[in-house]
Amino acid sequence: MLRIVYNVTKALDRTRPVIDTSGYVHVVTDIYDVHDYDQNPETFKARYQPLVTGGEVFVNRKGREKYQGQPYFVSEYGGIWWNPGQKDDIGWGYGERPKSKEEFLERYEKLTTALLDNPGICAFCYTQLTDVEQEVNGLYTYDRKPKFDPEIIRRINSRKAAIEK
């Protein structure tokens, strides 16, 4: 079915890049994307080194798909659990909760820098912009209030990426 949707899309518009199934098993895709919620900046960075140095590239489902040199997109990363006012067990995020805003921002910056510094990564997307229902890993609250100074996030995200140099 994915191959059919891909082929129909290409028949309608050959210029449109297509991602067949984001973060799952790729069948036929113009952009290879992965989801990665590793909270350890060192292991996170190391996972993407083969894009620079060669070797086996991280894929969503090892043994079920193969990376074939497409532009490489980390379409979901981060998901850092931050909701200091949480009084129940309903909300969640990925990994161990940071103990302070400073710890959150340090982790966010290190994870983001690992992607920005890798010339083999064409794009990335943090999960997520806002808290949604039970997921409390947004940069903004459910009611769209910033959890952190937006200028700090802008500074981290806006420097030139290695792929742009």
How would you portray this structure in words?
The protein has 165 residues and is of the alpha/beta class. It has one domain (19-164). It has five helices and three strands, in the order H-E-H-H-E-H-E-H. It has helices spanning 2-12, 41-47, 50-53, 101-116, 150-158; strands at residues 32-36, 72-78, 121-127. Strands 1-2-3 form a three-stranded parallel sheet, covered by helices on one side. Helix 4 (101-116) links the parallel strand 2 and strand 3. Helix 2 (41-47) packs parallel to helix 4 (101-116). The chain is globular, with a radius of gyration of 17 Å. The termini are far apart. The mean pLDDT is 94.
How many helices? The count is 5
The class by helix and strand makeup works out as alpha/beta
Biggest beta-sheet profile: 3 strands, parallel
Q: On the 0-100 scale, what is the average pLDDT?
A: 94
- Give the CA-based shape: globular
Task: Estimate percent helicity.
Answer: 25-40%
Rg measurement, Å: 17 Å
**Span between termini:** 38 Å
Proportion of residues in extended strands: 5-15%
**What order do the strands of the largest sheet run in, or round the barrel if closed?**
1-2-3
Task: Give, in order, the helices and strands.
Answer: HEHHEHEH
Report the strand count: 3
Uncertain runs are none
Total individual domains:
1
